[in-house]
Amino acid sequence: MSDHLRTPDPLSPQARRLCDAMTAGFPGPGDLRALRAAAASGASGASGAGSGRTGPAVASVSDTHAGGVPVRVYDPAPGRSDRPLVVFLHGGGWVMCGLDSHDATCRALAAAAGAVAVSADYRLAPEHPWPAAPDDALTVLLWARARARALGCDPGRVVLAGDSSGGNLAAVTALRAPELVAGQVLFYPPLDARMDSASVETYAEGYFHTAAHMAWYWDSYGGDPEHPHVSPLRAPDLSGLPPALIVLADCDVLRDEGLAYARRLAAAGVDCTLQLHPGVFHGFLGLPLPAGATALRAAAAWVAGAGRAGSTPQA
Length: 315
Known about the structure:
Layout: H1 13-24, H2 32-41, E1 60-66, E2 69-75, E3 83-89, H3 103-113, E4 116-120, H4 132-146, E5 153-163, H5 165-176, E6 183-187, H6 198-202, H7 211-221, E7 244-251, H8 255-267, E8 272-281, H9 290-305
Parallel strand pairs: 3-4, 3-5, 5-6, 6-7, 7-8
Antiparallel strand pairs: 1-2, 2-4
Helix pairs in contact: 3-9, 4-5
């Protein structure tokens, strides 16, 4: 029996209504055209990042290219020269979504953190399987850091951030270039392609983001499941990584992977802040739920403190 049919429902009543409405309009795994159409329309909340919602106004938004990768740069209020710089990597199972689907979230994060945000339109699978996406993410990080001063930011305060599959890319990029990153913000990331944690079974269906969808996303993405640049949880050594903020939904197949990664980071001596939000499901960050607003404010506060001399980011 699916967990959501039990009493009491682990989702809040408001989250349950949203979850059921989104599930009803979301295609099943395997239909790439339908999934991308749903993400583009925003009607189903496919991106889990504010689809169909308008983000706050910022001083400037510009589209450009970073080493060949399309990016969108958000500047909330030019003037200061020591601001943090966020490289944002969108979710969507590595197969869908892009700059527009996550526009509202990037605006909100930049405005609340007082940071410039660079959103990366990395190549999507299955047309461009692993390692195309992580290579694009690293390219954008290098580009952003090299231009930090010109953007009015401190190159020592560059933060990687991403939701869902973008959280995976943020974690992977931190593994590849830890010396270039002041922090990493991971919203409900997939971290282990083997999908063998207890939450995969507990929340396999009935909570919008199903185990079947996640398995299909992994299959479409490609790469060796044991490779740390596919499955960061499988990395043999996590020491020396930048501070991390990990934000999880309690009712999510990916919950236990995030918990395990937080434990491993802490054991490796990495400063790691964990936030587990009860009563919500995967993708809650951009949804009209109190937990989504709370998580975004906390992430912005964490980003605002990242890289400051003698300080530890506080969410």
